[in-house]
Design a protein that fits this description.
The protein has helices spanning 16-27, 42-47, 49-65, 81-91, 98-106, 166-171, 186-197, 217-229, 318-336, 354-357, 376-381, 397-402, 435-443, 448-451, 464-473, and strands at 4-12, 32-36, 110-113, 115-118, 123-127, 133-144, 148-150, 178-182, 201-206, 233-236, 240-246, 249-254, 259-262, 264-267, 271-273, 305-307, 360-363, 368-373, 386-392, 409-415, 420-428. It is of the alpha/beta class. It has three domains: 5-41 and 97-149 and 273-354, FAD/NAD(P)-binding domain (3-Layer(bba) Sandwich); 158-269, 3-Layer(bba) Sandwich (FAD/NAD(P)-binding domain), CATH 3.50.50.60; 367-473, FAD/NAD-linked reductase, C-terminal dimerisation domain (Enolase-like, domain 1, 2-Layer Sandwich), CATH 3.30.390. Strands 1, 2, 3, 4, 5, 6 and 16 form a seven-stranded mixed beta sheet that branches. A five-stranded antiparallel beta sheet has the order 17-18-21-20-19, with helices on both faces. Strands 10-9-8-14 form a four-stranded parallel beta sheet. The longest helix is centred in the last third of the chain and has 19 residues, at 318-336. The protein is globular and about 65 Å long. The structure holds flavin-adenine dinucleotide and nicotinamide-adenine-dinucleotide (NAD). The site of nicotinamide-adenine-dinucleotide (NAD) has 23 residues, from helix 7 and strand 17. Disulfide bonds join 44-49. InterPro entries: Class-I_Pyr_Nuc-Dis_Oxidored, FAD/NAD-bd_sf, FAD/NAD-binding_dom, FAD/NAD-linked_Rdtase_dimer_sf, Pyr_nuc-diS_OxRdtase, Pyr_nucl-diS_OxRdtase_dimer.
């Protein structure tokens, strides 16, 4: 090893979360280095959130326009797939990270390109692409922010095909004629929405009994209904037995004996931590494991190792990882300054409390699904005494004006002992922008009787809040 360099903080991985923690520690006056093996900006910028949403936006805008009388006639044609993909390429910065590298430079964070591995306590060894080695020593902490990767199931014949993961699904340069998607989670439904609209014949193979199993059941039902109307073949309760490449493409054999043939197959079957080759064994941790942390994002049992973002498996979402980065950054700075007492209590400045109680998520399908906090099933499993309050979104004036024949549903979960909202789910066109109202109500633990005074503007879809509260109050 050559070229040993010392920093206050060393961050392993420059995805959105690593970048944010580096920003916070640098702003607190701590010298900070980040190590990145691929592109600064991580999965989110190049193969996940940004390209997927750039692909989805024209699909959703067209679907919305088709529901507006006077406009629908002019948007009946197909999408211009070439222009949609070019728009995506632009938002993925053509898979170049110059902009983000420039930003790191502007905030005074040093970037080391290469594969980083922990190398004992407070040390990170970096192997650069041209084979050089650096050892970075952290005076205070090392932060692991190496994210996650797609998981492929073990299947006979997998080695005969080159399957798509979320990376290929978000960066493909043309629509396959026939696309099979295995998995009915968030990646599965968003990518089915995109590629069916761009001209592929999509078949979804879902082993459970519905889509989006982690959300309220009506969310998956409404999305499945709309995907089927868009022409996708959504099959639930089916499992893949094997895959094989033949003259006519990829043949997927199902456990019930049926089969489907396609040009491409996307496995949208979940994520694994990128920790198999980061030197965890040198610090007594298990390679390949998710890193378990406390609410300040410090790895259990350590006083110098933090883990933020996907890699700690608390919530696999960019905005929540960036929230963890803000909390961890504040905790790292406070501990470095030897602040005697950190605010690690619930909702304190050094506790990522919202990870447990107030996580928002938007699934950008048509209809959109927007949820915050707990589902009914989660609230009950947590032992809360709750009531689910339901309302048909199509009965809200603003929804009718938004789209002809509006279809949607809303559910609010009320904690009956505290009389506060602990969860909300909205499904319908345009509901994504409604979500922050729910997040504020949940994180703020606003009493229902005070929410009654939060008057939604007429005639917006947000009047659903009034209808939910009226329904609750009877
Ligand atoms: C298709 C798809 C769509 C998504 N859409 C959304 C969305 O709309 N909204 C949302 O909130 N979330 C979305 N997500 C989730 C989101 O992408 C992740 O939660 C987010 O990227 C996590 O950020 P991170 O910084 O923890 O990890 P990552 O973004 O994975 O970044 C980790 C970085 O660490 C680097 N790295 C790894 N190992 C090493 C090493 N040994 N040395 C050096 N560098 C290393 C990687 O190269 C990478 O740049 C989506 C995910 C997918 C797959
Ligand atoms: N809009 C967004 O916020 C957004 C978009 C995409 C992804 N994400 C995040 O990225 C993460 C990954 O998404 P994902 O959809 O890959 O994971 P997921 O865990 O949401 O869904 C994976 C699905 O695949 C199924 N599955 C697993 N193994 C299987 C197998 N062998 N055969 C058939 N089905 C199998 C699971 O039952 C599950 O329903 C999620 O945590 C998600 O929140 C967020």
């Amino acid at each position: 090893m050559t070229d040993a360099t010392e920093y206050d903080v060393v961050v392993l991985g420059a995805g959105p979360v690593g970048e944010n923690v580096a920003d916070r520690t640098r702003a607190a006056g701590l010298s900070t280095a980040v190590v990145e093996s691929e592109l600064v900006g991580g999965e989110c910028s190049y193969w996940a959130c940004i390209p997927s949403k750039a692909l989805l936006r024209p699909v959703i805008a067209r679907a919305d326009a088709r529901r507006v009388p006077g406009l629908s006639q002019s948007v009946q044609g197909p999408l211009d797939a070439h222009a949609v993909l070019a728009h995506r390429d632009y938002y993925a910065s053509h898979w170049k990270d110059d902009g983000q590298v420039g930003w790191l430079d502007s905030i005074g964070v040093d970037l080391y390109r290469g594969h980083g591995r922990l190398y004992g306590t407070k040390m990170v060894a970096v192997t650069s692409p041209d084979g050089e080695h650096h050892v970075l020593t952290a005076r205070h902490v090392v932060v692991v922010a190496t994210g996650s990767r797609a998981v492929l199931p073990t299947l006979p014949g997998l080695d005969t095909i080159t399957p798509w993961t979320s990376r290929e699904a978000t960066s493909a340069q043309q629509a396959p004629g026939r696309l099979v998607i295995v998995g009915g989670g968030v990646v599965g439904v968003e990518m089915a929405t995109v590629w069916q609209a761009l001209g592929s014949q999509v078949t979804m193979l879902v082993r459970g009994d519905g889509l989006l199993p982690k959300m309220e059941p009506f969310a998956g039902s409404l999305v499945a209904e709309a995907l089927a109307e868009a022409g996708a073949d959504v099959r639930t309760g089916v499992s893949v037995a094997s895959v094989e490449r033949g003259a006519d493409g990829i043949t997927v054999t199902l456990e019930d004996g049926g089969s489907v043939t396609a040009d491409e197959i996307l496995f949208a079957t979940g994520r694994a931590p990128r920790t198999d080759d980061i030197g965890l064994d040198t610090v007594g941790l298990e390679p390949g494991s998710w890193l378990s942390v406390d609410d300040s994002c410090r790895v259990d049992g350590s006083n110098w190792l933090y883990a933020v973002g996907d890699v700690n498996h608390r919530v696999l979402l960019t905005h929540q990882g960036k929230y963890q980065a803000r909390v961890a950054g504040a905790a790292i700075a406070a501990r470095a300054q030897q602040v005697p007492l950190l605010e690690t209590d619930r909702w304190g400045a050094h506790a990522a409390t919202a990870d447990h109680d107030a996580v928002p998520q938007v699934v950008f399908t048509d209809p959109e699904v927007a949820s915050a906090g707990r589902t009914l099933a989660e609230a009950e499993a947590a032992g809360l005494r709750v009531r689910a309050v339901d309302y048909d979104l199509s009965s809200v004036s603003g929804a009718g004006l938004y789209a002809d024949g509006y279809r949607g549903h809303a559910r609010m979960i009320v904690d009956l002992d505290r009389e506060i909202v602990v969860g909300a789910t909205f499904v319908g066109p345009g509901v994504g922008e409604l979500l922050h109202s729910a997040t504020v109500a949940i994180a703020g633990e606003v009493p229902i009787e005070r929410l009654w005074h939060a008057v939604p503007a007429f005639p917006t879809i947000s009047e659903v809040w009034l209808r939910l509260l009226e329904t609750y109050r009877g």
